[in-house]
Specification:
single chain, Flavocytochrome C3, Chain A, domain 1, six-stranded antiparallel sheet, five-stranded parallel sheet, 15 helices
Amino acid sequence: MGTKDVRVNIIGAGLAGLAAAIRLSQLGVQSRLVSVQPSERAQSNLAEGGINACLDLMGEEDTVEEHIKDTLRGGCFLADEAMVEGLCKEAPEIIRELSGYGVAFARENGRLIQRNFGGQKKKRTAFVKSSTGKVIMASMIKEVRKHERNGMVQRLFHHEYTGLITDKTRDEKARDPGSYMVKCRGVYIRDTYDSSLSALYGPVIIATGGMNGVFEAMTTGTYANTGEVSADLFMRGVRLANLEFIQYHPTTVSISGKRMLISEAARGEGGRLFYYGDNEEKIYFLEDEFGEGGNLMPRDVISKRMDMCGKQVYLDLTQIDGDKWNKRLSDLRREIMYYLSTDPVKEPVPVSPGIHFFMGGIKVGRDHMTNIRGLYAAGECSCAYHGANRLGGNSLLGAIYGGKVAAASAAAIYKDEYIGADDTRKDADDFSDERMKAYLKEPGDKDMELRVRMRKLLASALSVVRKEAEIEAAIRQTDSLLKEAEDLGACIRTLSLLMLSKAMLVSAYGRKESRGAHNLAEYPKQAEEYGKNSTVAIEDGRIRLSYEYPGEYCE
């Protein structure tokens, strides 16, 4: 893997990573697909409900423009309109591509059908029962293997990110002739089997998923998505955005130290949320407040209303007819019966909100490039399409589309700036980067204790409804943890995660309003002056918080 083997390097082999690899192959650009686990173990396999696209197959006169409006409205108008427009316009073609790869979307009488999903009045969610992510992943893995056979994709599983290769180059576009910009030259990786190190050269696409590992027993996502790559990039100067927006999915249950998702598809097919009143009567509180479509309000709205109930909430699926169970929800029923020993056909399921998606993440522009040239991000690790709250069915779409956009952008810069470039590093086997070496230090018992304490702080301060005083106290306690970590000689990965956690708290404390997934008790309404995206960056060892209107950060 020396200097002559310059490729686009993709870190993460879930949906966004696979989409990027396929697109690069189509553009005639070789790539490397790097991940600790094989694609079959990626978080994307757990996505259940479906993928959105305006196909207008259900006789409801749906339009792409309505999909755009629903996405912007669901995100409380914090997403960049041009990016959302690109996402929604490409969605029908993505469904056609997936069908061509072999994804057997649900059909009736030979015609593809779509279901209702939260925050959308029209049926535009294509699905495969409640195993959509798993089926899409299987088809895309097969497609990537075709490109692997012809030499366009090199898969490097059981390898982990250990650091970026960067340098400063003169910024030709800057007014100041002495200005420099940081450019990504490649990435260091480590083989988790034998601990050998490699330096991979070329543009880098980060596709490492959400920051599930930062939280304790609260997320529906896999803890293999540790958040450590995002944390390290943050410490290296990469800007992050909208970290305060953490989506709580309303219907989850606790299993084996994590949360199991009961897909929104269950409510799309007729499931209803209720709690028992004083006389044991069922109170369908969402329908009482919002009418017939109450159970399909956006996730942030439902989670907040559940929190306000002050009682155990149940998901009533007993009214769904047998044909829907057999044809559309059979795998969901099996899952509930296996993990909960409850048959949802016969009795309601007790549910509560759990962390499900991170709208915030690595800040990217419309080409999915970060503030470091040659470094891109796509999928849940990036902040791109979802604003203050993600619509159900837009995550799979955003991962695939984002991967494709990042790939096209990386391909262009690869051909213009990396192939045959004089400044490509000649020290392909020189692992002298001090931060990279420090990153290799494994966390010890003291590190793990610090992480557990941090998770508990986040769990309390960044709940469904937050309190200003609790967030402020958590920031002070995080500073104490950081000081303790330094005194104990904690590994750099722990220090980076603590700084990332503090950045989440600082972002939440700075937003004096309630918008989307950020609900601050002292400020229950949206405030016009906060109709902006938050950005955090490390400057002189301190976290700097700033705000930009939608579109400004995407230029």
